Amino acid sequence: MQLNNSIHTILSKRNKYPFLEDILITGIGSEGKALSRVNDRVVFVPLVVPGDVVDMQVIRKRKSYMEAKLVKIKQYSSIRQEAVCEHFGVCGGCKWQMLPYTEQLKFKQQQVFDQLSRIGKFEMPQIREILGSEHSEFYRNKLEFTFSNKRWLTEDEIQTGKEFEHRNAVGFHVPGQFDKVVDIDKCWLQGGQSNDIRNSIREYALAHKLEFFDLREQKGLLRNLIIRKSSGGELMLILSFFREDKEAIEALLTFLVREFPEITSLQYVINGKANDTILDQDIIVFHGKDHILEEMADLKFIVGPKSFYQTNSSQAERLYQCVSDLAELTGDEIVYDLYTGTGTIAIFLARQAKKVVGVEYVPEAIEDAKKNSILNGITNTEFEVADIKNVLNPEFIEIHGKPDVLVLDPPRAGLHEKVISGLLESEPARIVYVSCNPGTQARDVALLTDKYEVTAVQPVDMFPHTHHVENIMQLRRKTKDERPKM
User: Fold this and answer.
1) Which of 94, 141, 277, 409 has fewest C-beta within 10 Å?
2) Phi/psi of residue 185, each to 5°?
3) 7-75 adopts what CATH topology?
4) ∠70-71-72 over CA atoms, to 5°?
5) For the chain, which residues make up each domain, given as ranges?
6) Class of the CATH domain delimited by 142-296
7) Phi–psi pair at 70, nearest 5 degrees
């Protein structure tokens, strides 16, 4: 096929942007979108892979790039595969199912290199080969679904002109549409009873005329569903309701206990706020325990409804083993684990350290961390509730001791500038920085390179079929002779 990379403008009032025909897709760009170059301008388009030849409609123009929507695939790439999920292309997750997993890993490896080199611009050793996930389907131990009375209609459904009896859905938000939800039948992210439970709740709600939430009007009853599943098979459900309706709520929860006796923990919350977060809400146990137990190596971890725990259980063990290896502990070190969550990394490292101090701003997580230490017979951990940016100061260090090794695992936004300052002042011998966003990680590490050199980079894939990648970096403190002269 002759490729034509010229721009064809559609002269109509409906469309002020160009239509691009016979465009060869050449790479993968930001946020997992594929890219091409048209007249020296980069065009980003989702749902295609390098090697595809496509027609696409530009939907947004910027000075240095354009964004487009796929219209038609004219020639399929040799590396393209069929997506397994019926919701692929509509649901906001698993955007890379059409890309073989081995190819996904190549692009993620390149993504880490590109972001560290372009944003960080610091010297670093060769990046180690990315550690792929053992499972590329049904790998998540936690999923959150949204109830909505504004089900997203597919283009095929709209074309029928049919009137739908109801628009109720339970599933995932449509990207860019805060009040629209894709109704999910089978999700390939979480195995076990997850799909059966969600579908049973939908059927029960429709049969009993329970109100699905209206996100725009802020009214209704059923709001959110969280399903957590441990590697040992324990199962936690948390149902979020917008308002109190004792009879309806108890009837639904009783139905779930009867239909799914394997549920270990059934909890619910009345959340009448404008946002979905339940971290600031009282969660009520209706049936079973207030937690489930997760196992990693020979350790056990209590996971409550508000606990943070890596969502890919089998890969989390490999991630933490890499952290342990890069920490290079001998048994004599004081370790700080900032953003400790429920203490998983801290406890994982404790048996190789003199002492580990874990810090987290969520009180419930710290309570779980303390319980997890006791559960595993760990006596050399200390856990504190604090704002991370206020921790690395002389008062805190005087109480807990000067850190020899410092582990960081911050949110996607990266480190606050006060944390950077604290790192430079406290000068631990080694820093192990775990990040789910190599871009902000590169930015942060660049600010540390006057005193630290990057000595190891290890990508780890926690999220198959997405563009997300976890990355671990080891930083070693420079001697005074190695530091730039002021």
Assistant:
1) 277
2) -90, -65
3) OB fold (Dihydrolipoamide Acetyltransferase, E2P) (2.40.50)
4) 105
5) 7-75, 102-135+312-482, 142-296
6) mainly beta
7) -65, 130
Percent of the chain predicted with pLDDT > 90: 81
Residues annotated catalytic, as ranges: 436
Backbone φ, ψ for residue 227 (5° rounding): -120, 120
pLDDT of residue 364: 84
| Residue found under tokens 């606990």 | 307
Task: Report the alpha-carbon distance of residue 394 to residue 174 in Å, rounded.
Answer: 47
CATH of domain 102-135+312-482: 3.40.50.150
Q: Are 98 and 81 in contact (CB under 8 A)?
A: yes
Pairing of strands 235-241, 265-270: parallel
Task: Tell me if residue 272 falls in helix, strand or coil.
Answer: coil
Tens-place pLDDT, residues 197-225: 999 999 999 999 999 999 899 999 999 99
Beta-ladder partners of 60 = 67
Q: Is the pTM of this model over 0.85?
A: yes
Same fold, 7-75 and 142-296: yes
Cα–Cα distance, 362 to 301 (Å, whole number): 17
**H helical segments located in 76-193:** 101-115, 155-160
Q: Bin 406: left if φ > 0, else alpha if -120 < ψ < 50, else beta.
A: beta
Work out whether strand 222-229 and strand 142-148 pair parallel, antiparallel, or are unpaired.
antiparallel
Q: Output the six-digit token pair for 31.
A: 């946020």
Q: Find out whether 219 and 242 touch, Cβ atoms under 8 Å.
A: yes
Q: In what order do the strands lie in the sheet with 53-61?
A: 7-9, 18-24, 53-61, 65-75, 41-45, 34-38, 27-28
